[in-house]
User: Fold this.
Amino acid sequence: MSNGDQTVYELVGGEATFCALADAFYARVEDDPLLRPMFPADLTAGKRAQFLFLVQFFGGPQDYSVERGHPRLRMRHAPFPIDERARQAWLNHMLAALDEVGIQEPMLSFMRDYFVRASEHMINRYDDIVNVQSDRSSR
Assistant:
């Protein structure tokens, strides 16, 4: 999404906004009993990687790719057990962070839609879905 020659990155306030977004998100993860164990003790590197990725994805400088290569988000997240509960927790924190930072429409809806789709794509554990289907079929 862009407005003429402006990217979402520019329209929402650039680097400062994405830094605040990563800070707000990681503050929530820090206190989340489900998600926190999936993250390293020191959140600094992860916060920086997320900041760089979001800046790049939404039209800012390409520093993420320069430093880390292609994003390959699903591959990078494969070691972590991401089920529907973890996805929803992650998404809730990211959407709350968007609200805290004060992203305005229409960029807010565009970014929210991206995070919903991206979080769905990261699911790599389907036990809860299989268990629900098994419970239904045994009735």
Observations:
- The radius of gyration is 16 Å.
- The longest helix spans residues 84-101.
- The chain has one domain: 2-137.
